[in-house]
Amino acid sequence: MPFQPEPERTKAHELASHANAWPFAEARALAKHLKNGVPEKGYVLFETGYGPSGLPHIGTFGEVARTTMVRHAFEVLTGMPTKLFAYSDDMDGLRKVPDNIPNQEMVAEHLGKPLTSIPDPFGTHESFAHHNNARLQAFLDDFGFEYEFKSATEEYKAGHLDGTLLKVLEHHEKVLEIILPTLGEERRATYSPFLPVCKKTGRVLQVPVVEIKSDDGTIVYKDEDGSLVETPVTGGHVKLQWKADWAGRWTALDVDYEMSGKDLIESVRLSSRICRALGGTPPVNLTYELFLDENGEKISKSKGNGLSMEEWLRYATPESLSLFMYQKPKTAKRLFFDVIPKNVDEYLTFLGKFGEQEEKDQLSNPVYHIHGGHPPQPEAAGLSFNILLNLASVCHSDDKAVLWHFISRYRPDATAENAPILDKLVGYAINYYNDFVKPNKKFRAPTDQERGALEDLQGALAGLAADTQAADIQTEVYEVGKRHGFENLRDWFKACYEVLLGQEQGPRMGSFIALYGLGETVELIGKALAGEDLSA
């Protein structure tokens, strides 16, 4: 029997049936595709693909993170068992040497060979593919993803794709009918879904296939030297071209769900047609928009533009990166350093709200999906990343203890031990400040109007009690701006940022002053009015 009965429904299932969050919408589409039954293989299979010709990048993580969110939502919705395969296309022949690796001349000598047959330019692993695969797995493991790693080379050589390869051989003409209309005249003349692996050179060949022997399970191809070579299509002697390879994988593994980028829309369409021609069922697909770098260009493994995973994690929490991936997957987003602070603070806001929400609303909170339904308790310190950045800015220190001096005075109950999230944020803030804020600081002298207002603010702050709350300090700052004729109070706050902090944007001044200290702020204003160098 092809399907098993639907598991018993619970309250969580019912809530998930109506949840608005996009992972639940995807989960419902997949359940409908499966007709609410467990496939014959005994589980629902999610898959993500990885091309190891370049180092793993943040987009690779994004695909696994988003797929994991859908997988969890599907489990909550249906109760069905699931698996996730992280599949590396490491049998592909390398066509171009990536720009961001060492020993490029050595790698260039092996162009055309499968990535698992090319020596590791980093000198640490068995092959180039083994190195990049290890990098991918280490990162996914660090994030706690549950997955099974699959190597295309191992799958082909172990014979796990043999049955599907023989189906491609049997339906060779159907595959050609699907692919050939999409190719140029010259490419059509030599195209075959099979790419032989040359026994002499080890290279993956794009050569004409002159004969198909379905009964023998072999093809005859014209080698680069003009000779005719017969080879079996099984056992890793050939690999499939890209679109046929994707379709073959879907068919062989019976993949139920796989998302992909906007640039692969046509590939999804053609691979789906090939999958059906082979007797398989294409998976449910989500098309996500691409990430862009600071120039609005698509990020690329080979170019190494945009942000790397390691770079994001130098400046912010893993959870903030997961939030970036969660938000609006069908909208193109800039993936560069300036998006980090906003995502850190939004994550803290969502985490703070979660415990106060009804269960049905929790299912639409991003932290539910980031943490697989079990987000941690928020910390009570209530300090934003933006505030910490500005504290680092005025402290001019690489020492976390210096920032903790101010934090402990503001929140005596908070320590690095009982507020580990805050402690990590302090370190991230120092890194971000030193690398991005400090080099771009531009202090300016106040105008006559601003000087009068700052003198007034200095006096007002000096007259406040030491325990004045942030909201009351904020009111004082507002009142000073009004007294000094700022028609748009944004201009007043911008003046505070530019004169006191050396930047065009900044924190809520009341909160910042409460953290930094009334006396320290009075002294800071005095230095600015005296023309002292605030960047030192």
Could you explain the architecture of this structure?
With 536 residues, the chain is mainly alpha-helical. The chain has four domains: 11-288, 3-Layer(aba) Sandwich (Rossmann fold); 300-370, no CATH class; 385-440; 448-529, Arc Repressor Mutant, subunit A, CATH 1.10.10.350. The chain has 24 helices and twelve strands. The protein has helices spanning 11-16, 22-33, 58-78, 104-108, 128-142, 152-157, 162-170, 172-179, 185-190, 242-253, 265-277, 309-315, 318-326, 340-354, 359-362, 366-370, 385-395, 400-410, 420-437, 448-462, 470-483, 489-501, 509-516, 518-529; strands at 44-50, 82-88, 148-151, 194-196, 209-213, 218-222, 228-232, 238-240, 260-261, 287-288, 291-292, 333-334. The strands form five sheets. The protein has a three-stranded parallel beta sheet with strand order 1-2-3. The chain has a three-stranded antiparallel beta sheet with strand order 5-6-7, with no helix packed on it. The protein has a two-stranded antiparallel sheet with strand order 4-8. Strand 6 and strand 7 (228-232) form a beta hairpin. The protein is elongated, with a radius of gyration of 29 Å.
